[in-house]
Write a structure and sequence with these properties.
The chain is of the alpha/beta class and 104 residues long. The chain has a single domain (2-99), classed as Roll (Urease, subunit C, domain 1), CATH 2.30.40. The protein is built from three helices and five strands; from the N terminus they run αβββαββα. It has helices spanning 2-20, 61-65, 93-99, and strands spanning 28-39, 42-51, 54-59, 73-76, 81-82. Strands 1, 2, 3, 4 and 5 form a five-stranded mixed β-sheet that branches. The model is unreliable at 4-16 (pLDDT under 50).
Length: 104
């Protein structure tokens, strides 16, 4: 029972810490990654925080950890490159169709 009480205290403390800092807790934090920022002054970072599908903070793991709350999903980037925002989901139907062959 003491373990449950300690876990509850940690959760309440984490949520209080995020609110006390004057910001909502992030829904998602990715850490231990090589985050491409697009900023020449700081071309890479190691972590980022997301709220409502938008990146709200990029920085060191310690800086981004301040955005963590009780319901924050934590993702270990395993040192991989993270390039936010490059999404391309289209097909050139005519050229794609020309490349296909069909056997009957």
């Amino acid at each position: 029972m003491a373990a449950h009480g300690a876990a509850f205290f940690v959760c309440v403390w984490a949520e209080f810490h995020a609110v006390r800092a004057g910001r909502p807790a992030a829904e998602l934090i990715v850490t231990n990654a090589k985050v491409w920022t697009g900023d020449k002054a700081q071309p890479t970072a190691e972590a980022l925080a997301v709220i409502s599908g938008r990146i709200v903070a990029v920085g060191s793991a310690a800086e981004i950890d301040q955005w963590r709350g009780t319901r924050t999903t934590l993702v270990d980037g395993r040192g991989k490159l993270l390039v936010p925002g490059f999404n391309d989901a289209h097909v050139h139907f005519f050229s794609e169709a020309q490349s296909w062959t069909m056997s009957i």
